[in-house]
Amino acid sequence: MPTLQHNASADNLVISKHRLSGSDVSFTPSSNTSGPFKDSFPDTIVIHFTAGSSLSSSVNVMTNPNNKVSAHLAVGRQGEIVQMLPFNKIGWHAGKSSWQGRTSLNQYSLGIELDNAGELTPNGEGFYTSWFGGVYESSDVFKGTHRNQTAPRYWHRYTEAQIMRTFSLCQLLCRQYGITCIVGHEEIAPDRKVDPGPAFP
Question: Boundaries of each N-acetylmuramoyl-L-alanine amidase domain copy (predicted)?
Answer without folding.
Answer: 32-197
